[in-house]
Amino acid sequence: MTPTEELRAAADKLRALVTAASTATATPVERDGKPTTEWHFAESRPGHGYLYAANPTGPGTRLMHADGPRTYPSMRTRHGAYAAAMDPALGAALAGWLDAEAARLAATAHPGWHDTLASPHALAIARLINGEPRSHSPLPDA
Q1: Burial of 85 by CB count in 10 Å (0-12 exposed, 13-18 middle, 19+ buried)?
Q2: In the chain, how long is the greatest CA-to-CA distance?
Q3: CB-neighbour burial class of residue 95 (10 A; exposed 0-12, middle 13-18, buried 19+)
């Protein structure tokens, strides 16, 4: 797979994940599910809380579910805050950036030069999204 193909594949995969994650309920958007592109985390007790999908027309919906009545799983604050920061809006923006990088590379360089001219940051992120083992896709130093 060329770097351009890797970037496009990662953008496509991320966009599909964003679409799936953009429904706040088990009901898909096309069957009147609640669309959302924003998540937030709220502590329920010190160090623990819940991840919610924002609902522009009413209360948010918890993104985690429990097995029994009146029981809600929670997650550590640090994990919930990170998950909320990586919400579908960010995923959509990241997919757009990967597409733009793939388009730039395709328009400005011969395919034989793509390995040399691809943004190492964009390519590292694309490879992680595409499931390449982390040992093979080290993120370059910032």
Answers
A1: exposed
A2: 59
A3: buried
The whole model's pTM is what?
A: 0.64
Q: For residue 61, give both structure tokens.
A: 């919906």
pLDDT in tens, 41-67: 878 888 888 777 776 555 677 777 666
Please state, rounded to an integer, the average pLDDT across all residues of the chain.
77
Sign of the torsion angle spanned by Cα atoms 20, 21, 24, 25: positive
* Element containing residue 76 per DSSP (H, E): strand 75-76
Residue 106 neighbours by CB distance under 10 Å: 16
d(CA 70, CA 58): 21
